[in-house]
Amino acid sequence: MIDIQSKIHDSNTIEFKVGYIAQPDMPESDFVMNTWIFMPESLDINRRTFSKAMFYQNVHSHIRLITPTFTLAQLTSADNMPFRMLVRAINRLERFNNPRALEKFESEVKMAASIFKSTLRDTYRMVLSEGGQPDHCRIMTKGIDTWLNQYRSLYSTVNRLNNTTAKEYYQFADEFISNVTEQHLFLLCSYLKKEKRDTWDEVKTDISDLLDKELAYKKDMGYLYVEAQSTDNNKGFIHRAGMLKKFAESNLFLAVSKRRNTFLLEQLAFMLAAGLSMIFATMIAFSFQQTYGNFTLPLFIALVVSYMFKDRIKELIRFYFAHKMGSKFYDYKTSMSIHYLKLGWCKEGFDYITPDKLPPNVQQKRQRNTLLEISRGVNEQIILYRKKMHLKRKNVSKSSHYPMEGVNDIIRCNLFEFMRNMDDPGVPLYANDGSGGYSEVSGRRVYFINFVIQCTYQDITTEYYHYRVAISKNGIEDITAIL
Q1: pLDDT tens digit sequence for 195-213
Q2: pLDDT band at 279 (very low <50, low <70, confident <90, very high)
Q3: pLDDT in the model for residue 298
């Protein structure tokens, strides 16, 4: 199973979060994700201006384990797994107080923080999907308060360990939990004020009290918080929040080793090219030598010409492999592991293709059917980005005592190079008022880049996704899922 979520990461970058979920009854799982990128020809993105190397410079992939899933009710139960494992790690550290026990404590602290963030995000989305009902909002605020009290009840125990490093790990996670709590509560406030004013009037006291309580706790603990009158635009808070996020989520990131996938094939092809070109040059030399003899002018000319052709033949064969045969192979292979446990590998490939090589389902998903779109002068360039993921389900399960389902591949695609040849976004226009007058208005020029993604699991199930990105010279403006 493959799950995809898209968003704008920053003004120049879009992000696809791809979840590869391995089935528990399958020892090994194979996933294929093919992405066709359709760009207006006016952007001048082609083999000459945007090479394979440039593409990989602008596409970055971060692979990590999928955060274990818990509902807010499960997470706040009396015997929930993250709290139980954290207590066990504290007791072990108190008993042994060695580097191994400290490492285990650090891991459990990070996992508890990551699980809380994931649960809080899912709960917030559930509240929105259910229309922001008052009961759901109260369940969310009560669950947050319960978890915060439960986690912070361990503070005195951690403090008694007389281990400064353990105390700092615990506080890092506590500060991270506080930040994500405020973030999601403020998002909920903003949503309710704009969309559900009646609900906001009912629950604003509960939310405001929890936010005030959290601010007081931050001040008491000496944690950084957002200040309305900050003299440095809260740069210190933003930097520390980013560091805390990396700390909490580092427990899930995999060790990866990336290398060229076709290195051996390339070397064999280059050897073959050199051999064929040498055979050609040698045959010409032997032929002219038998006809004209040694040390003659015709033989000299034949040797020079044959070596000229030899070099061209070698380069032509190299070109054929790189641009023809190369499209049938993947460019890079990334091995994935955690704690020296090999979880699988991922391959990726890139190439330009022509419209006649598009599968029918992709052509249909692209929906380029109007006469204007298919007319001359509005053609498209098409990039095909291919990924293949192979997971060993048994090793994924062994990677943690938590129930692990698979991996997330976070793909960030920087589109800055696509903006170089765009016209200015501002366009002066005139609006006719229908009575002989007019008014000057400002228009906005955007370009549309289409991503059609084909996801296949075990060659059994195939799903298609279509995203349209509106982009101008000032950056990415919108990303829309096309059904």
Answers
A1: 999 999 999 999 999 999 9
A2: confident
A3: 72
Quick one: average pLDDT of 234-258?
93
CB 152 within 8 A of CB 178: no
pLDDT at 374 over 70: no
Give percent of the chain with pLDDT exceeding 70: 88
Asked if residue 183 and residue 83 are part of one domain, the reply reads yes
Looking at the structure, tell me whether residues 289 and 245 fall in a common domain: no
Mean predicted confidence (pLDDT) in 154-173:
93
Strands 2-10 and 426-432: unpaired
Element (H, E) at 146: helix 134-152
Question: Residue 115 corresponds to which tokens in the numbers above?
Answer: 């699980």
Are 469 and 415 in contact by the 8 Å Cβ rule? The answer is yes
Residue 79 exposed, middle or buried by CB count within 10 Å (0-12, 13-18, 19+): exposed
- 5 forms beta bridges with 17
Burial of residue 191 (number of CB atoms within 10 Å: 0-12, 13-18, 19+) = middle
Give the separation between CA 39 and CA 448, rounded to whole angstroms.
Answer: 7
Residue 377 confidence class, pLDDT cut points 50, 70, 90: very low
Domain total for the chain? Answer: 3
Helix pair angle (99-129, 81-96), 10° resolution: 170
Structural domain boundaries enclosing 268:
262-327
Q: What is the rounded distance in angstroms from the CA atom of residue 442 to the CA atom of residue 444?
A: 7
If asked whether residues 100 and 229 sit together in one domain, one would say: yes
Are the CB atoms for 209 and 185 separated by under 8 Å? no
Assign residue 459 a region: left if phi > 0, alpha if psi is -120 to 50, beta otherwise? left
List, for residues 255-266, the tens digit of each pLDDT value.
888 887 655 655
Q: Are 313 and 241 in contact (CB under 8 A)?
A: no
Same domain for 203 and 232, yes or no, is: yes
- The rounded distance, in Å, linking the Cα atoms of 118 and 110 is 12
Same domain, 168 and 219: yes
Same domain, yes or no: 127 and 188: yes
Same domain, 339 and 266: no
Query: What three-state secondary structure class fits 38?
Result: strand
Q: Hey, is 173 helix, strand or coil?
A: helix
